[in-house]
Amino acid sequence: MNSVKVLAKEIKEFKLSSVLTPIFMILEVVVEMLIPLLMSRIIDEGITAGNFQAIVKNGTLMLLCALAGLAAGILSGVFGSKASTGFARNLRKAMYRNIQTFSFLSIDKFSPSGLVTRLTTDVTNVQNAYMMILRMFVRAPFSMIIAMTMAFIINARIATIYLVAVILLAIALIIIMTKTTKFFRMVFKKYDALNESVEENVSAIRVVKAYVREDYEKTKFQKAAENIYSLFVKAENNMILVQPIMMGTVYTVIMLISWVGAHMIVNSALTTGELMSLLTYCMNILMSLMMMGMVFVMVTMSAASVQRIAEVITEESSLKNPENPVFEVADGSIDFENVDFSYSADSREPVLSDVDLHIRSGETIGIIGGTGSSKSSLVSLISRLYDVSDGCVKVGGIDVRQYDLTSLRNQVAVVLQNNVLFSGTILENLRWGKKDATEEECRAAAEMACADEFISRFPDGYNTVITQGGTNVSGGQKQRLCIARALLKDPKILILDDSTSAVDTATDAKIRSAMMKAKPGMTKIIITQRIISVENADRVIVMDNGRVSGFDTPDNLLKNNAIYREVCETQKSGGGDFDIRSEESGSGAKGGEE
Ligand SMILES: Nc1ncnc2c1ncn2[C@@H]1O[C@H](COP(=O)(O)OP(=O)(O)OP(=O)(O)O)[C@@H](O)[C@H]1O
Ligand SMILES: [Mg+2]
C-alpha cells in the first residue's frame, strides 16, 4: 500500500487527465447503454406498430448516441494514453533522479542491471496497468451495474437469469485468475534473471568471446528463456479456459432468455423489442465481467513492479550532506583515526580494522599490499565513497562527514581501479574533471599524464571520438586519459588506484615526475603492485589483510618490514614480474577486461 502511495505522488501534472479518462469512459458507457433501449423502441413503437415517424425519431436519437459515444470513447482514450505515458515518464525521472544520489552502498544493493530492469520493464508494466485501471476499472463495474439495472427495469424475471449466470461466472473466473496470477508472478521473477544474464553477457561480450564461452552462454540463456516459455504456457493453459467458459455461459443465457422470453411474448408479458434489448444487455454484462477479470490479472501482475519501483524512489542515500557543511578544504592532509570499516553491517570480518594513519599535506604516499588486502577500500573512505563503521577520517583536519560532498570530492580526485571513459570526444571526457576547462588546460593535464603523445598521433587529435566503454583506446591509453581527467580538477589530494598497471614502467615514472614537478603541493596517494613505483615516495603504507602492517619511508621499511622486503626482493630479482614484458611496448600493454 505504501508503495502505491509513493508512486501515486508521481502522477503530478497528469491528475486532470487521470480524472477525465474515467469520466469520459462513464459517459461512453451511459450513451452505449441507451442504444439497446432505443432499439427496443424502434421495434415496438415503430416496426410492430407500423409508425414510421417513431422509427425516424428513435433512429436519429440512436445515431446521435452512437456519435456521442464515439467522441467520448476517443477522448477517454486520448486522456488515458496521456495520463499513463506521462505517469511512466515521471516515474522514470523520479527513479533516475534518485539513482544519481545513490551512494556506492545503494548501488551495491540494487546492482546496475537490476536498476536498468526497474527503469524499463517494471515501469512499462505499471504504465499498462495504470491505463487499464483508468479505463476498465471504472468502465467494467459501471457498465455491468447499468446493464443489470436496465435489465431489471425491463423484466425482473429474466434479469434474475443474468444474476445467477454472473455469480457462477464470477466464481469460475476468480478460480482461473488466481491460478494464472501465480504463474505470471513467477514469470516476472524469471524475467529478472533473463535480463540480468543478457545485460551482463552483452556488456562483457568481449570476455565471453576471448574465453570462447559462447556455447556456454547460449545454453545458459536458452535455459532462462525455456523457463519463461514453460511458465507462460502454463499460465496461458489456464487462461485458455476463460474463452469457452465465457462463451458457453453467454449462449446458455441467450438460449434460456429466448426460451423464457418466447413464452412471455406469447403470453404478452414481454414485447419483441424488450427481448432484443435484454439480449444486448446480456452480452454487455458478461463482457464487463471478463474485463474485470483482466484488470485483476493486470493489477496483480504489476504489484511486484510497483514495489520494485517504490524501492528505488524511496532509497535514501546513506551518505547525507551535513546540516552546516564545510565548503573549504584547508589542505591536503589526511588522518585516519582508529578506523574500522565493513561494507555491510552484518558481515563477519571487518574489511579494515584499527587503521591509524597521519599523512601530511603535499606528501607522496605509496600503498602496496596483496590483492584483497583492502587498499581500494582504504582510499574509498577519503573521498567518502563509503562511510567508516567506527573512528573517523579527516581531510584538512576536518572529519569528511562535515564537508559538503561536492566540495570534498572536487578536492579529492580518485582515479578508480576499474575506471571508465564515456562515449564522446577526448576533450569532452577530459572536461568531466573541469566543465569549463580550456583546450590549453586539457592539453597541459594530458601532457602531465603522458597522454598528449598518443592523442596527438590520432588523426582527429583531441576531437577523437571515444566509443562507449572506451573500447577504441588501449588499456594503458585509457588509464592515462583517466589520470589526465583527474588532474584537470586540480585537486588537493590525488589518489591513483592501480592507475598505471597497464602503462609501461618508463611512462609510469615519467607521469610521476611530471606530477611532482607541476603539482608539488598536491598530496599524492599511489596504490600499486610495483615496488618500483613507490621507491621515490615519501612514505609507503604496507597493507596486510585489512590492517596496516607498516607505514614508513621506503628505506626504513626495507629494514623493518618483512612483507615489504619480500615483495622488494621478488620483484627486483625478476621473479613473477610483469614489468619486464610491458617495458618493451611503447604505448603500454593492452589492458585486458576486468
Ligand atoms: N563493494 C564491495 N562490497 C562488499 N565487499 C567488498 C566490496 N569491495 C571490496 N570488498 C571486499 O573487501 C575486501 C578488500 O577489497 P579491496 O578492493 O579493498 O582490496 P584491494 O587491496 O584493493 O585489492 P586489489 O589489489 O585486488 O585491488 C575484499 O575481501 C573484497 O571482497
Ligand atoms: Mg583495489
Q: What are its keywords?
A:
594 residues; ABC transporter transmembrane region fold; Rossmann fold; 6-stranded mixed β-sheet; 20 helices; disordered C terminus; binds adenosine-5'-triphosphate; binds magnesium ion
Describe this structure in words.
- This protein is an alpha/beta fold and 594 residues long.
- The protein has two domains: 2-314, ABC transporter type 1, transmembrane domain (ABC transporter transmembrane region fold, Up-down Bundle); 334-584, Rossmann fold (3-Layer(aba) Sandwich).
- The chain is built from 20 helices and twelve strands.
- A hairpin with a 2-residue loop joins strand 4 (390-395) and strand 5 (398-399).
- Helix 6 packs antiparallel against helix 8.
- The longest helix is centred in the N-terminal third of the chain and has 49 residues, at 52-100.
- The radius of gyration is 36 Å and the shape is elongated.
- Bound molecules: adenosine-5'-triphosphate and magnesium ion.
- Residues 108, 343, 351, 369, 371-377, 417 line the site of adenosine-5'-triphosphate.
- Residues 375-376, 417, 497 line the site of magnesium ion (MG).
